[in-house]
């Protein structure tokens, strides 16, 4: 399923786009204000962003610039009425990947979205999200609110296991076996406790990393 954020203040247009794309196996979250999308982006980044050029609280180009500074890989498409298309071309050159002029056929918008995702390779199965945390397996990188964090190998492997099993409890035994024993390195239980403590500190004490007393740990969205 393709995860898409859509900024649109026209409820009729937003509902039509949402219903059509959801039939095409998209998960669409609609925002009537740029501020709402900005807040959501801090917690979780989708596969693609649709931005209406003119919104009640600003222009899409403003949010696009903010977004590009934090997640330059995230594909963005501007939606605009024909009279604004000249300005949108400028915005497109400054950061968006494509733009579509209103009124548009839903089939055309869908095909442009798929073409962009194929071009940028952003249908990501190797990218995990939980609250404001992102783990990118392709880059072997971890981000918090767009800021890249430096983790040790055991810390990264623990977080990866928890992210892969988001919503499920991973036992301490499983973590010890998969992170250390698989490499032929036996460690005691206290090593895991210390590593988790260091991981929490580097992740800025995230509420989404929960301790399940006497069992293990679980990643779980809280926002």
UniProtKB/TrEMBL annotation:
<dbReference type="InterPro" id="IPR036388">
    <property type="entry name" value="WH-like_DNA-bd_sf"/>
</dbReference>
<dbReference type="Pfam" id="PF00486">
    <property type="entry name" value="Trans_reg_C"/>
</dbReference>
<feature type="domain" description="Response regulatory">
    <location>
        <begin position="3"/>
        <end position="117"/>
    </location>
</feature>
<feature type="DNA-binding region" description="OmpR/PhoB-type">
    <location>
        <begin position="125"/>
        <end position="221"/>
    </location>
</feature>
<keyword id="KW-0597">Phosphoprotein</keyword>
<dbReference type="InterPro" id="IPR001867">
    <property type="entry name" value="OmpR/PhoB-type_DNA-bd"/>
</dbReference>
<dbReference type="InterPro" id="IPR039420">
    <property type="entry name" value="WalR-like"/>
</dbReference>
<keyword id="KW-0804">Transcription</keyword>
<keyword id="KW-0805">Transcription regulation</keyword>
<comment type="function">
    <text>May play the central regulatory role in sporulation. It may be an element of the effector pathway responsible for the activation of sporulation genes in response to nutritional stress. Spo0A may act in concert with spo0H (a sigma factor) to control the expression of some genes that are critical to the sporulation process.</text>
</comment>
<dbReference type="InterPro" id="IPR001789">
    <property type="entry name" value="Sig_transdc_resp-reg_receiver"/>
</dbReference>
<dbReference type="Pfam" id="PF00072">
    <property type="entry name" value="Response_reg"/>
</dbReference>
<feature type="domain" description="OmpR/PhoB-type">
    <location>
        <begin position="125"/>
        <end position="221"/>
    </location>
</feature>
<keyword id="KW-0238">DNA-binding</keyword>
<dbReference type="InterPro" id="IPR011006">
    <property type="entry name" value="CheY-like_superfamily"/>
</dbReference>
<protein>
    <recommendedName>
        <fullName>Stage 0 sporulation protein A homolog</fullName>
    </recommendedName>
</protein>
<keyword id="KW-0902">Two-component regulatory system</keyword>
<feature type="modified residue" description="4-aspartylphosphate">
    <location>
        <position position="52"/>
    </location>
</feature>
């Amino acid at each position: 399923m393709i995860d898409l954020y859509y900024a649109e203040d026209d409820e009729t247009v937003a509902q039509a786009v949402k219903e059509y794309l959801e039939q095409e196996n998209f998960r669409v979250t609609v925002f009537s204000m740029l501020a709402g999308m900005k807040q959501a982006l801090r917690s979780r980044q989708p596969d693609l962003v649709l931005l209406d050029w003119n919104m009640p609280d600003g222009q899409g180009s403003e949010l696009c610039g903010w977004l590009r500074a934090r997640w330059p890989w995230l594909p963005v498409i501007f939606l605009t009425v024909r009279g604004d298309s000249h300005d949108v071309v400028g915005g497109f050159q400054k950061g968006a990947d494509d733009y579509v002029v209103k009124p548009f056929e839903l089939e055309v918008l869908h095909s442009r979205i798929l073409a962009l995702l194929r071009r940028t390779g952003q249908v990501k199965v190797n990218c995990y999200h939980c609250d404001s945390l992102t783990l990118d397996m392709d880059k072997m990188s971890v981000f918090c609110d767009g800021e890249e964090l430096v983790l040790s190998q055991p810390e990264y492997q623990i977080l990866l296991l928890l992210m892969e099993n988001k919503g499920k409890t991973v036992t301490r035994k499983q973590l010890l076996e998969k992170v250390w024993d698989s490499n032929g390195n036996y460690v005691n239980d206290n090593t895991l406790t210390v590593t988790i403590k260091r991981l929490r500190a580097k992740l800025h004490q995230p509420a989404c990393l929960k301790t399940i007393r006497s069992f293990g740990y679980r990643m779980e969205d809280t926002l």
